């Protein structure tokens, strides 16, 4: 197996797990739009980094975190969706500018948009593993309080939980997951990894613990299958990710509907 | 009743958005009491609860179990106004209740037989065991209410605050929930403060009534409070209190004037007293 | 100074201004309904879904507008059918979007690899307001008129369905049908927007001016007027500034319209929010 493929596999596995655990909460909070918008905002940051001559992943991380914080700030006075839309527009406007100014559009940014296997270095694998581990730790830490805040907010307040901090924590966890996911699955399609496996898991079970485990399983399945098919055909990874995710979603939804009859 | 004062409110005043919602509230609640917090919409009932929970900045003093009211007091349990859960919310009744045990702690819950036993025991106590494994969104208002009560009680509180638990319930369910709360409170030695806008389901179990009108309060036994002269003084305009077949009816205004948003209503025939 | 003379005489600029104005106005009007109905995600998703169609159109050598429209309308139907229940709605929208983007990834890959169209991704994603043929301007204008007319005809039932669906049902309004018609209209508007400022930013024209407008007034009709006005202002100023930036650093090929338009939309929104912040708000 060529070295770059092994690197892609390792990174992909980390990404699958990070995306699944973050996605568990995204689906619970019904934040699909946010999951879609954040990677795009990150992409704009990566374009900015390229323009400045810096490693694009730094730009990705900065705009992902910045975007998350912007949404949490705007959400105070707007519906969630509108806050996300405005943040997205801001980030993309900047991104458009960076891309035009850089002039180096074709391959570099395209790879970040749709995901490609080539170009994953050993250093990147380590960095991905590091950020991924951070993401997992954060989710483990936030697990119970976030469940309580999501499903019984007032009780959480009365119990003395710092509700605002917990919610911001969730947003930052998503930003972390996005930072590792975008290089592998692309800015446009990371979000299918974020919401797909968790949504499919929720069709099959209502128990939070089981749903989390199932999300991870589905996510790993998706990434491994996609990487393999992308390697064999040379087509973009992102295409396969979205196809597998859609299949999982529709399949589990049909199963759930059938079992209700 | 041990006579210990559980909630001591002196000269409480709360302003929201510049508007005074509560002023000069003076109330003392004793251990083991079941207090009905009654009043029309907007009278400040939820605000009073939030002040006791330490969730609002307030003038005056609110002391709970000898300490100033603060968020996160483990001795105080809270059942919020029923939030309608989405039909597809991915959470079982069991999980919702279990969050009452340790939802406020960081990290993962360690699965253990002890945890399981305590949750199942509580589910039995509120008679919700048979539907606890169903998704919460599929349950009726009354069923969700029981789960929320179980959730609050799992924390082992000595004071239980319930915000309009009967609001969206039919009469039979309302009486069942009230009976349940009263029984559990008696068994566990819990003091109860239950907010409602209709007094009647509470009549059989309540020790005293805390009546709020226009931000002012009066506390006392049912027969002391539900009198025309007491409520008239509280509201600041003529109020007539009628007793019909063991039910209480509160009417505002002189004869020919409008009826108050009828805070209490008569029950259909056949309803148990 | 001769550069500006060129500006006012250039047929591309005329086309851009006309196209931009028409699309911005309709986007603003329907955007108010989108904000009201909480369908911002659907509005954005349809733009991306249309982008897949445009990538396909490029491959087939057809005018990208038809690609946008075809996939947009298909996507609208898919989203509406899959997302019956409130909580499933956003997730279903997301999955349809994911599928469309996956297909778009594949099509753009073929575009750049096979057809030699390295410009395809750029045009699809960021818009081609200066490169639009006059015949397309006419089609877009007609479509916009039709959309505006239908929205006008549906105004009251749509408003009721958006605010009080149960009441609308009891009044005999076919709520499901109205929702479907609305999302089809939305698809048309969004795809036109995608043509002007690209799939990525048509959302800005849809949501931004509307979000600002609803801060300025509580009357729906006036909100639509303000949303349209702010949208047109943002696009015209964007075209103007983009043209004017032609000589700006660093590359001498100008800054993109989409950047200026997006920046202005945000400025308008923030101004509206700050300006009305002192009012007793929710």
Q: What class do helices, strands and sheet pairing of chain C give?
A: mainly alpha
H and E order of chain A? HHHHHHHHHHH
Sheet/helix structural class of chain A: mainly alpha
N- to C-terminal distance of chain C: 50 Å
What do these coordinates show?
The complex is a heterotrimer of chains A (261), B (273) and C (282). Chain A is built from eleven helices and no strands. Chain A is mainly α and 261 residues long. Chain A has a single domain, classed as ABC transporter involved in vitamin B12 uptake, BtuC (Orthogonal Bundle). Chain A starts with a helix and ends with a helix. The model of chain A has no long low-confidence stretch (mean pLDDT 87). Chain B is α/β, with parallel strands linked by helices and 273 residues long. Chain B has one domain: Rossmann fold (3-Layer(aba) Sandwich). In chain B, 27% of the residues lie in helices and 27% in strands. In chain B, strands 6-7-8-3-9-10 form a six-stranded mixed β-sheet, sandwiched between helices. In chain B, β11 (239-244) and β12 (247-252) form a beta hairpin. Chain C contains twelve helices and no strands. With 282 residues, chain C is mainly α. Chain C has a single domain (2-271), classed as Orthogonal Bundle (ABC transporter involved in vitamin B12 uptake, BtuC), CATH 1.10.3470. The chains are: A mainly alpha (261), B alpha/beta (273), C mainly alpha (282). Chains in contact: A-B, A-C, B-C. At the A-C interface, α2, α4, α5, α9 and α11 of A face α3, α5, α6, α10 and α12 of C.
């Amino acid at each position: 197996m060529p070295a770059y493929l092994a690197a892609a596999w390792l990174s992909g596995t980390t990404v699958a797990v990070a995306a699944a655990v973050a996605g568990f909460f995204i689906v619970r909070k019904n934040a699909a739009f946010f999951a879609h918008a954040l990677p795009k905002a990150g992409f704009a940051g990566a374009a900015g980094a390229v323009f400045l001559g810096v490693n694009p992943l730094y730009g990705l991380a900065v705009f992902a975190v910045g975007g998350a914080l912007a949404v949490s700030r705007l959400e105070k006075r707007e519906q969630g969706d509108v806050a996300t839309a405005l943040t997205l527009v801001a980030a993309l406007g900047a991104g458009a500018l960076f891309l035009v100014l850089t002039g180096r559009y074709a391959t570099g940014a395209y790879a970040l948009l749709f995901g490609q296997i080539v170009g994953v270095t050993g250093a990147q694998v380590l960095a991905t593993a590091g950020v991924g581990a951070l993401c997992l730790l954060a989710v483990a830490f936030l697990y119970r309080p976030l469940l309580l805040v999501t499903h019984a907010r007032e009780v959480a307040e009365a119990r003395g939980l710092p509700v605002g901090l917990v919610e911001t924590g969730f947003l930052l966890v998503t930003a972390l997951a996005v930072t590792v996911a975008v290089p592998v699955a692309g800015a446009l399609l990371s979000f299918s990894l974020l919401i797909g496996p968790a949504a499919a898991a929720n069709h099959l079970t209502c128990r939070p613990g089981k749903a989390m485990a199932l999300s991870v399983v589905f996510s790993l399945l998706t990434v491994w299958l996609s990487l393999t098919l992308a390697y064999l055909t040379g087509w973009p990874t992102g295409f396969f990710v979205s196809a597998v995710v859609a299949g999982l979603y529709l399949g589990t939804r049909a199963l759930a509907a059938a079992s209700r009859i | 009743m041990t006579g210990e004062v559980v909630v001591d409110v002196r000269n409480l005043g709360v302003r929201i958005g510049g508007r005074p919602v509560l002023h000069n509230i003076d109330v003392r609640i004793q251990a083991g009491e079941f207090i009905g917090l009654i009043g029309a919409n907007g009278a400040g009932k939820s605000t009073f609860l939030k002040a006791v929970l330490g969730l609002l900045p307030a003038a005056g003093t609110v002391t709970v179990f000898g300490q100033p009211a603060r968020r996160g007091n483990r001795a105080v349990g809270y059942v919020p106004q029923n939030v309608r859960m989405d039909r597809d919310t991915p959470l079982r009744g069991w999980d919702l209740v279990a969050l009452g045990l340790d939802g406020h702690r960081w990290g993962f819950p360690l699965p253990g037989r002890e945890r399981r036993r305590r949750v199942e025991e509580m589910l039995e106590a509120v008679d919700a065991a048979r539907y606890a494994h169903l998704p919460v969104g599929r349950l009726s208002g009354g069923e969700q209410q029981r789960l929320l009560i179980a959730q609050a009680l799992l924390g082992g509180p000595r004071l239980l605050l319930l915000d309009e638990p009967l609001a969206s319930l039919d009469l039979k369910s309302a009486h069942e929930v009230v009976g349940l709360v009263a029984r559990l409170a008696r068994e566990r030695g819990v003091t109860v403060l239950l907010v409602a806008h209709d007094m009647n389901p509470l009549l059989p179990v309540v020790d005293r009534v805390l009546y709020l009108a226009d931000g002012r309060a009066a506390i006392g036994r049912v027969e002391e409070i539900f009198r025309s002269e007491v409520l008239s003084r509280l509201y600041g305009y003529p109020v007539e209190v009628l007793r019909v077949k063991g039910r209480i009816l509160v009417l505002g205004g002189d004869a020919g004037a409008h009826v108050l948003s009828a805070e209490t209503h008569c029950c259909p025939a056949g309803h148990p007293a | 100074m001769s550069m500006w003379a060129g500006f006012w005489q250039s047929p591309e600029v005329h086309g851009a201004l006309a196209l931009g104005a028409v699309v911005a106005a309709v986007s603003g009007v329907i955007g108010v309904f989108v904000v009201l109905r909480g369908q911002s995600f659907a509005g954005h998703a349809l733009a991306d879904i249309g982008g897949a169609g445009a990538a396909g159109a490029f491959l087939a050598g057809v005018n990208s507008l038809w690609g946008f429209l075809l996939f947009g309308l298909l996507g609208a139907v898919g989203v509406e059918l899959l997302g019956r229940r409130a909580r499933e709605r956003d997730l279903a929208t997301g999955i349809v979007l994911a599928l469309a983007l996956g297909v778009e990834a594949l099509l753009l890959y073929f575009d750049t690899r096979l057809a030699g169209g390295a410009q395809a991704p750029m045009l699809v994603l960021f818009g081609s307001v200066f490169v639009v043929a006059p015949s397309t301007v006419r089609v877009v204008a007609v479509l916009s008129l039709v959309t505006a007319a239908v929205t006008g005809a549906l105004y009251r039932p749509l408003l009721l369905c958006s605010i009080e669906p149960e009441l609308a049902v009891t009044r005999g309004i076919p709520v499901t049908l109205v929702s479907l018609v609305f999302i089809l209209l939305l698809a048309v508007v969004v795809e036109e927007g995608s043509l002007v400022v690209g799939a990525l930013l048509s959302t800005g024209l849809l949501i931004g001016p509307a979000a600002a407008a609803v801060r300025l007034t509580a009357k729906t009709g006036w909100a639509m007027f303000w949303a349209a006005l702010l949208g047109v202002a943002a696009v015209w100023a964007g075209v103007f500034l983009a043209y004017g930036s032609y000589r700006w650093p660093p590359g001498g090929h100008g800054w993109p319209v989409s950047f200026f338009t997006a920046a202005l939309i945000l400025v308008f929104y923030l101004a509206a929010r700050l300006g009305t912040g002192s009012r007793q708000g929710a």
